[in-house]
Amino acid sequence: MKLIERYIFRRAAIMFLATLLPLLGIVWTTQALANVNLVTDSGQSVLAFLKLATLILPSVVPIILPFALVIGVTQTLSAMNSDSELTVLNAAGSSRMSIIRPVLYLAAGLSVLSFAIDNFVEPYSRVAVRKMIATAHADLLSSVVQENSFRKITDGLYVQVGARRSGGVLHGIFVADSRNPNFELVYYAREGAVDEKSSALVMKDGEVHRKLPEGGVSVIKFDSYAFDLTDMTKSAGEANIRPKDRDLFYLLNPDPEDSALKRTPLVFTAELHRRFTEWSYPLLFGLIALVISSDARSHREARVHPTISAVGAALIIRWMTFYAANSAEDSLWFVPLMYLVPLMTGALAIRQLASNRRLYIPTSWHDKLSDQIARIRHSRAGADAGQAS
Predict the structure, then answer these.
(1) Whole-number Å distance between alpha carbons of 128 and 188
(2) What is the DSSP string of 130-165?
(3) What's the whole-model pTM score?
(4) Domain boundaries, the chain
């Protein structure tokens, strides 16, 4: 690359990182906090929480990368335009490609990185997260339930234990089970314990109350009762693996006996096509940023800030592709739309750059915007004059 191209590349890369890290930190924090209850309720250590939070990162990075790039590029080129650097380059006879080329290099590199993370790193991390979740549910009652406090085991299932004794014996057991919409069950038992395989809670000397939606209640006393826990205590090897958790090679040649493939074959198809299209977003968003902000503009020219325009366009395109990918899980008619949106957008952006045209606000809009800006300035001047008097 030429000196000016290295200069633009370096500034864009620095601005990209300055945008990526805060965005990544915010999204990562929200995702990690969403799973903090799993770690605390299952009695896991701080290291387990940090491991879980780290494994979430690969699923966040491909989403953040394109937007961080479009913000970094538009901010860099806008700053260069404000400092009249783009004007100097244009006056010196420098080709517009000297501005376009370094941005495309950066965008292409990020697209390769996004492809690698999306198809190889993220599936591995997703499987690891699911195994951690399955392991956290194993032996849940015997290790998690605390004395004299209600604990939510799963949706609709709550447990309270009066006291814990040596040998894993539990005293004063209360279980409320409303998972079945047809009736509610409430168990009381003097004592009990979780069996060695963590597959059942064996309760002794108690009773169960069965309440129907109509309001009727039946009470049954028991000497011994085994409450099934197999649905909540799956081992790590039995973690539920979904199409998003599979790598690219498996999606290209899935196991015909895969139960998930038999249940939802279109989900596998939609996920495969999503992998083939999503990696291109950094390159596509880089082209959008160049179209909007790569030309020299006068400071007096009325226009929306390039970052706002570029991010707005990127959000619309991302929403369209996201909608197409979700809809493709139910209908194959949306699969072509997953390719059509980025291809048409990229083609229009390349045509705009190749023709060396500038985006401009139509004359009628320009006049209205100029009048509005003049009114705002006039009102501010009047307010300042009133305060001074």
Answers:
(1) 37
(2) HHHHHHHHTTHHHHHPPBT--EEEETTEEEEEEEE-
(3) 0.70
(4) 3-136+240-368, 140-233
